[in-house]
Amino acid sequence: PSLREPRYRVVLLGDPGVGKTSLVNLFAGVQERDLLEQHGGAAYERRLTVDGEETTLVVLDTWEPEQRGEESQRRSHCLQIGNAYIIVYSVTDRDSFESASELRIQLRRARQAEDIPIILVGNKTDLVRCREVSEEEGQACAAVFDCKFIETSAALQHNVAELFEGVVRQIRLRQGGK
Ligand code: GDP
């Protein structure tokens, strides 16, 4: 890729089991070894064309649950390095929805003065009969926390491409303002 082609880091946040890895696996092609080493975990890189322009997204799936209330270095690193964030919860798990709000608050604290794009994602919409969080609640939460919202199903590959395209558009919107 040319130097002028934009490259953005997108960090996935959310409780274990909500579908972060499934979502990024659907999206991503390459897992580069130097990327992995640099970020100490799972990093995926893919070029995509959105609205006729190419962009490279590096998606980091390195979030880990809090251990005994300790603020791990990796967690605070994650909150610092993203150009954009995807906060995932499962629509079948209300606790993960509460965690998503908590993560939004942590992120705001970590990046106070910045206007970083955040997308709230309600995943597992295919599990209709296990749903614990309605789409309206997700939307309302996103409105309160001033972020974008989308529901996805990694299992059905529903809205996954739209999610990552939306991330690119949100990043560009803010770049355009500069
Ligand atoms: P992570 O811990 O957030 O990375 O979650 P994973 O991607 O490892 O997914 C946890 C489990 O949920 C796995 O068994 C996935 O197959 C399953 N899963 C992920 N996304 C979906 C989805 O959209 N629908 C259904 N039914 N299962 C899903």
UniProtKB/TrEMBL annotation:
One GO location term (cellular component): plasma membrane
UniProt keywords, alphabetically: Calmodulin-binding, GTP-binding, Nucleotide-binding, Phosphoprotein
Molecular function GO labels: calcium channel regulator activity; calmodulin binding; GTP binding; GTPase activity
Self-association and partners: Interacts with Calmodulin.
Family per similarity comment: Belongs to the small GTPase superfamily. RGK family.
Protein name per its UniProtKB record: GTP-binding protein
